[in-house]
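step: validate -> pass
step: tokenize input -> pass
step: predict -> running
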Amino acid sequence: MRNLVVLSVAARVALTISPASADELMQRAQETFKPIPSVVPAIKGNAVTRDKIELGEMLFFDPRLSASQIISCNSCHNLAAGGVDAGPTSIGHGWQKGPRRAPTVLNAVFNIAQFWDGRAADLKAQAKGPVQASAEMNATPALVEKTLASMPAYVDRFKKAFPEDASPVTFDNITKAIEAFEATLITPASRFDQFLEGNAGALTAEEKKGLSLFMDKGCSSCHNGINVGGEAYFPFGVVEKPGAEILPANDKGRFAVTKTASDEYVFRAAPLRNVALRAPYFHSGQVWNLKQAVGIMGASQLGQTLTDQEEDAIVAFLQTLTGEQPKVELPILPPRTDSTPLPKQ
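step: predict -> pass
step: emit ->
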């Protein structure tokens, strides 16, 4: 009898990992998600050239784009830490705290729009915002142009990157160069991508269980596509609004952009690529544990209380979304000259 029980258990286990069910799971995943490409995507209206990328990289790391000359794009979108910074919200000019968690810059080129509320249509428009925001870099287009134009090495770089422009050191070209560099910050070849491309052995049984739960429970109705999110806007708290510490009452999300009542507390679905690298979570940055974040989303968005085992399996799946991180070499920046504006406090 004992042998029959063992055989019965073995048969059930074999059934759960049979080639047919594995193929079915892969097919379902392929219909819902897309792998990160290994080549830089094209950008409408902004040809991505090597000269533009190299200039954009320098600008991304240059703190002199800020009025204080101590805050760079990388300050809030740290490429060594998942494209975000370490705290719930970023620290800007004069030690001011930003109102929301900094979104990751990694794979941001695949998002429908930029910022949590989608107020910037693309990465170029996004780059213009923080430079001018008083709580962030607190500069002006004129100040940034004057600063960069004061350094001959930068002027030469702009001429190479924008050869068709007679006076290429413009705010628009500055953000075009940053956009071109940020478009290269993609993270292909995650284990999940390998699974989507046909390698059934790229995920463990626990991770496949998590993937299946992620789709069956409804997570993938918002978090889908190439970036596993970032492609549409949804209310936070579809079934049950989380507490005010997670969903601050005074931040109504996309409503500030559209002024439409139905957009209150609506945000762009967070892209989940590399999510395991970038705690804390949500636009408020108040949840430091990925498993806790999964539980909150289950209750708030789906109206389901996930079991401990279900949460563990979904977290295991989410950890497979970490791809190859961009290989970025810290650039040597042009030296300032006597005509370079001094920092402003």
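step: describe -> Strands lie at 233-235, 266-268.
step: cleanup -> pass
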